[in-house]
Design goal:
binds adenosine-5'-triphosphate; globular; mainly alpha; two-stranded parallel sheet; 331 residues; binds magnesium ion
């Protein structure tokens, strides 16, 4: 049976790119995998400037959002990363088969370290090793993520292969899984950049919990391209992005989305239609979120159950890894 694993950061507010690129794949994964494992990665959030008092709140925010989007703790394993200490131990053990030069060259490290005003922490550099441990601890076959994570998945595959060739077949080499439509949702103001939690401006970021009026406003101001043709094409990043968003919210392909606008009168029509589709798509999520977020005790209980299930799986992998590496007493 397929094991799926993915993690999501409890930083900031989750946006349309997170929902389409990742969270909706998580939801679908519940029907395909046994188990489907999803983790709110609070230990990744401490690698950049953050507020400790807010971190716990953000974990609840993100957990409630995941559940509102359709994750069911009965049908998947949903937990908080720091509750399962095997992740951090494994990340140390895997650091011995991780190439330092490679970490230095990772795009996310380069971008995020350039954006740090104060300290560039070693944690930011080490982030992909912890991420490798997150996935490899569960011997996951598939990792549903957005396109921006490809480099990190490549690294964890190499880490797993190097471990296996040094120490014998122990870890599963995971495959990336990006959605067919919406693997890289662009910022509405700068469609060549990915929509991001840590974007400088919020005008181009549509949050899952945005009010309908705010969503409409952001789409109305979306940057489009020269000309008036509504086509999905490399020289039309703005229009292509809007078509992708429309397609993803409707569950259709990009070409079908193009066809849906064959009679549209211009980019104004396109923006209005996409805004309406997104508002309709997000409304039920927003409604469920309010109810789920109000009950922190229930969220905490769900995370605790998830952590117990996760720990059982990760502990078995750790026992094998320790044994292969000669760490600890002979088993
Ligand atoms: P940051 O920019 O601070 O890294 P983020 O917006 O990437 O934040 P994450 O929690 O790191 O948020 O990402 C969660 C998931 O969402 C990942 O699988 C990531 O690939 C995916 N994702 C993030 N942004 C986009 C996007 N613009 N389009 C599609 N998927 C995305
Ligand atoms: Mg990210």
């Amino acid at each position: 049976m397929t094991v799926i694993f993915s993690g999501i950061q409890p930083t900031g507010r989750k946006h349309l790119g997170n929902l389409i690129g990742a969270i909706e794949q998580y939801v679908a994964g519940q029907d395909r995998a046994d188990p489907a494992i999803y983790c709110v990665v609070d230990l990744h959030a401490v690698t950049v400037d953050y507020d400790p008092a807010q971190l716990r709140e953000r974990v609840y925010d993100t957990t409630a959002l995941l559940m509102a989007a359709g994750l069911d703790p009965q049908r998947c394993v949903l937990f908080r990363q720091s509750d399962v200490r095997e992740h951090t131990e494994l990340s140390w053990l895997l650091s011995s088969v991780t190439e330092l030069g490679r970490l230095n060259r990772m795009h996310q490290f380069r971008d995020k370290s350039a954006a740090q005003r104060a300290l560039v922490s070693a944690g930011l550099l080490f982030y992909p090793v912890l991420q490798a441990a997150d996935v490899l601890a569960y011997r996951a076959h598939e990792v549903p993520v957005g396109e921006d994570q490809r480099e990190h998945i490549e690294l964890m595959r190499d880490v797993a292969m190097r471990f296996n060739s040094r120490s014998g077949e122990t870890l599963v080499v995971p495959e990336i899984r990006v959605p067919q439509v919406g693997a890289r949702i662009g910022d509405l103001q700068e469609p060549d950049r990915k929509m991001s939690t840590s974007a400088a401006s919020q005008a181009g970021t549509v949050y899952v919990l945005d009010e309908p009026a705010a969503i409409v406003k952001k789409f109305k101001r979306a940057v489009t391209d020269s000309g008036s043709e509504i086509v999905h094409a490399p020289d039309k990043p703005g229009v292509s992005n809007l078509l992708q968003i429309f397609a993803a919210t409707r569950g259709i392909g990009a070409r079908e989305a193009e066809a849906a606008f064959a009679d549209a009168r211009g980019y104004g029509d396109l923006k209005t239609a996409v805004a309406e589709a997104v508002v309709a798509h997000l409304a039920p999520v927003r409604e469920r979120y309010a109810a789920l977020r109000a009950d922190e005790a229930a969220l905490e209980a769900a995370l605790a159950v998830g952590a117990d299930k996760a720990r059982a799986i990760a502990a078995a992998t750790l026992a094998d890894v320790r044994d292969r590496m000669g760490v600890g007493a002979r088993v």
